[in-house]
Amino acid sequence: MALFLSTFVNKVDKKGRVSVPAPFRTALAEQPYAGILAYRSLHGPWIEAAGIDRLQKFSDELEQLDPDRPEEAERYTLLSTLLGETYQLAWDEGGRVLLPQPLLDYAGIGEEAAFVGQGKHFLIRDPSQQRAIVEATIASRLEAKKSKDSPPKAPSPGRD
Questions:
Q1: Of 49, 61, 136, 151, which is most buried by a Cβ count within 10 Å?
Q2: Assigned superfamily of 7-146
Q3: Packing angle of the helix pair 52-64, 70-84 (nearest 10 deg)
Q4: How far apart are CA 137 and CA 122, in angstroms?
Q5: Which class for 57: exposed (0-12), middle (13-18), buried (19 or more C-beta within 10 A)?
Q6: Mean per-residue pLDDT pooled into runs of 10, the chain (160 residues)
Q7: If we measure between CA atoms, which residue out of 85, 87, 90, 129 comes closest to residue 107?
Q8: Where do the domains of the chain lie?
Q9: Contact call for residues 119 and 27 (beta carbons, < 8 A)
């Protein structure tokens, strides 16, 4: 399975074409589909993408689920929706894909797109959104560490 790491920011042309980062294309080189599969994230206003192997696993799982069993119905609906909303985006000879307008609109992507590695899949976000998330995460972690590492405050002397 492919492994996606790092963040790359690439230009999006007026038609919605964007170059998939070379390390991501290399990670997908052994896949039977020369492109990416992309869908609207259910976790925030961005695009999630991966190779066909990841979506094949979702498909295989869906085939094993029974939508009439209450304990399986929610997962069945989730996977069915995800697969039904996935776009297959083949890359051209330059490694570019055409991001469909509904995905661009959903993610608020304009002239640039940030490709953000997540291990087995990656995100495609507006670069300013990506920077804001990274900075907020780092600030939050540093603040939590600072609070944890600070010695307890001495009690105020009381009056008798």
A1: 49
A2: Transcriptional regulator MraZ domain (3.40.1550.20)
A3: 150
A4: 18
A5: middle
A6: 90 97 95 95 96 91 89 91 95 96 98 97 97 94 82 58
A7: 129
A8: 7-146
A9: no
